[in-house]
User: Fold this.
Amino acid sequence: MSEIELVKNMISITIDGKEYKAKEGEYILNAARANDIFIPAICYLTRCSPTLACRICLVEADGKQVYSCNARVKEGMEIVTTTPNILEERRAIMEVYDVNHPLQCGVCDQSGECELQNYTLELAVDSQSYSIPDTKRETKNWSSVLHYDAGLCIVCERCTTVCKDMIGDSAIKTTKRGGSALDKSLKGSMPKDAYAMWNKLQKSIIAPSNGTEHTNCSDCGECIAVCPVGALVSRDFQYTTNAWDLKKIPATCAHCSSGCQIYYETKPTSISDRREKIYRVTNEWNYVSLCGAGRFGYDFENREVKKDKEAFKRAIEAFKKAKVINFTSVITNEEALMLQTLKEKLGVKLINREARAFQIFLDFYKQYSGKSLYSLDFKEIMASDFVISLGTSLRNDNPNARYAFNNVQKMNKGAGLYFHPVGDTLVPTFGRNILTFAHKVGHEEAVLLLLIELFSNKDELPDIVKEQLDREKLVELLGGDSKFEASFSKIMKKKEKFSLIVGEDLYFHPKAKNIVKLITILEKTSPIKVAMIPPKTNSLGVALICDLDDEAKGYTIGYNALGDFKFSALGDGDLDAPAMNQQEGTLTNMHKRVTPTNVALEYNGYTLHDIVKELLNIPTKYTIDWTPKLPINKGFKSIDFDSLPNGYSNDGTENRGYLLTEITSEAKEIDVDKFDENIALDGDIAYRCNPQRQFSDFTNKAHQIFEEFALYASPKRAEALGKRVVVEFDSGNLELDVKIDERMDGDIVAVPDFKSDKNIYELFGASRYQKVIIREV
Amino acid sequence: MGLEKFKDRNIGTQNYKKLDLTHPPKSGWDRFKQVVSRTFKPELCIGLWVTLREMINALFRGKMHTTQYPLEKLPISPRYRAIHEMLRLLESGHYRCIGCGLCEKICISNCISMETRYDENQRKEVSEYTINFGRCIFCGYCAEVCPELAIVHGGRYETASEQRASFSLFEDMLTPIDKLNLQKEYQGFGAISPNADDNIKKTPLAY
Ligand code: SF4
Ligand code: SF4
Ligand code: SF4
Ligand code: SF4
Ligand code: SF4
Ligand code: FES
Assistant:
């Protein structure tokens, strides 16, 4: 946002007698926080809807008592954060929370960072005025990661709120506690809000919303993160350490292109083994939400590595004779730059399939739109009120893209269109205004034509596009239902900001070029703006930094990938490399941001930097000496690693690394191909797609991530397929167990690509979908 | 000696007595008189007599004052801070430590280290616990902070051994289960003050 806009949207308010600026329409609580003023608040979560469960955030605004988490600021508003009455309410609220709360801080995992402890002390609760008979509340294991201790739960509803408004699973809800009713006489005698809060608290408790004992959810662990007390903890972490013993290492998650802010929390492994171990991953949950891979897949380090001089010598020899370097996108920008330098100096070819496909797509986009980067980042998507998803299995490809899609529905009274050949039963539950289309594989262009038909200003369109805009036919072709017109005009009501998420299906598409053209036309002639999901962790960085090759033959070095000489952080290579949690450097994420990550665990072996230094005689000392050398003409900045910030400020502004600069160039004339509906695939189709929480060999190595390398199918299809199948591709066969993915729908099956040694990209070739023959073994 | 005085930590109200010392001589003559009287009084013999009397007492009357260490040991104050002991619950015999980690945190020489885990009974179990006595300065903070009166200082002040490790594990410090009946409540640092009850506000209960 530019300076001028910022000033325009700012209004003046007074808090406790002092004047401050606040964003128009902001909640009082957020406005106060942005100005570094403390107002107690327990149940409110930034980016989610206020639930008014705790009522402790009371303030007086223009003489009236309001809840600061759901009352909005107005020009000239006078806010008082404490009055004698408010203090009385707050104290009573904390006393109520302490009624029957188990005295078990001594063993509780939240102790030291517990909001109940903190606020009890903050409000100086040193005596108790209330009591009620306790109800038996059992502890439960809701899933492989979730442990719920109802005894500790204060029913703030933060877990249910985040699961609904942010994650989208809505896997937990409040349910009846069966506690005794409050004494009616209290209604008159105790503070009003405290009474109302208690009345609700006494009636409810949290439980899985599907009515069973188990959540069957995405296991993202965000509910654990937001729980203010020790009621929700990770089963693996429970009782293993105390919060204050852990060292927080600010980092960037290495698993997908969302590049979420995380802290690796470490302490020595045990009394006899003093080497650091990661005990858990936490996040700034008010501003970023993790998925299960990021939160639980943290122990992928390359352990026990020493400097093996012989192996290093062999590696140098291998690099000298190498013709090709094959690598993945789980790599820092600095390392990508080193590989690019090797290419320039030694003439090796660089192979990275996922980044190459994305690179070509971005290149087309640059040619036709004149912009080096896609228009929106995913924060801007969250701010839109109409979001469209095309060419991505939202649930599997990128959890944060999915959270954005969901959040728009919940927070902005939004609507959405979801186009994907693989049916998904979760997406439609995000909101009432979502239309889903399970179109045929290969009909992605038709989707764009439909979008142009629906949203574009027809006068600006080239004739060849105009000719193809037959609304009814397109809707029918894409599998829309007969009531489309009515439902579409309903969900379009009062919508202002439109966004389009596109994903990997389009990068691996035979008509990728034409698709880019259509996207560009759509952006030019309609209010829709596009955001792209880079396929893997640092695909965007690699695509910008490296000059990748399509095909290459000869002696190959595999960096965390297949090759004749393997340089690998997975512990199985000819020379060991550090894993992402043992490295410092930067990653480029889908928010077009270059973010720093730091060393959580020690690594004593050789790094790519050592090899490059030896090969090219470059006088750099550390990998991060390459940070300021990242290519400025691609949008990077020349900033030293150590001066990159990594955090959020109180108003939610992200201060992590820096944003890529968009480079503009002259746009080419667009000549669109005619869409041919016969390109659709028929028959048995396999889709290259990972199960939730699996992204690469690294997530697979983590002990809490157990989703198998198997064939995933909808319950119906899985039953028809049997236990174990052979999948025959044109270029080879694959034998896999069949697993049910309850949230899949339809007949397309998913084949994961997270194991690099299975060489799945080779089987699928240039497309993400392949016609296959599947037979039971 | 009773323990009351140790328990009474309120130093300000203790009774101090002033000694009645005679005034020093003022003039030179007075000083001369003092020297003469001290020189010719048989005070030396008084001193010698005390020694002789005690020798006779010790040798012939069985009133020996020397402690026959190491056969005999002096009783030490309950506030003495020697090698730690880990106490057990008297009723169940289970160790008292709940693994809260406060002693580990407060230790100013960073010599306490522990491991905990989620056990089969859904409780926090202390699976390993150790104090590095090479570093411990016996400050008593751990005993003071312990909410369970689990870690206390014992009277075991003889800390010579081939290995420091001989003292440092949980089992070494834990009251042996067969000696549970001999376990004494700790009276030193961190023990409950005699007026603890007066300082507690009662929580109402609805049962
Ligand atoms: S939730 Fe907080 S107050 Fe309750 S036992 Fe745990 S640390 Fe103590
Ligand atoms: S489990 Fe935690 S987050 Fe959920 S309602 Fe209870 S206290 Fe709040
Ligand atoms: S783990 Fe995630 S999806 Fe599951 S209940 Fe918690 S917030 Fe919801
Ligand atoms: S895997 Fe992706 S979405 Fe999940 S925490 Fe990591 S970066 Fe975020
Ligand atoms: S302070 Fe006491 S209860 Fe806590 S860990 Fe130490 S010995 Fe155990
Ligand atoms: S934070 Fe406003 S009601 Fe809880």
Observations:
- Residues 28-60 of chain B form one domain.
- The longest helix of chain B spans residues 43-60.
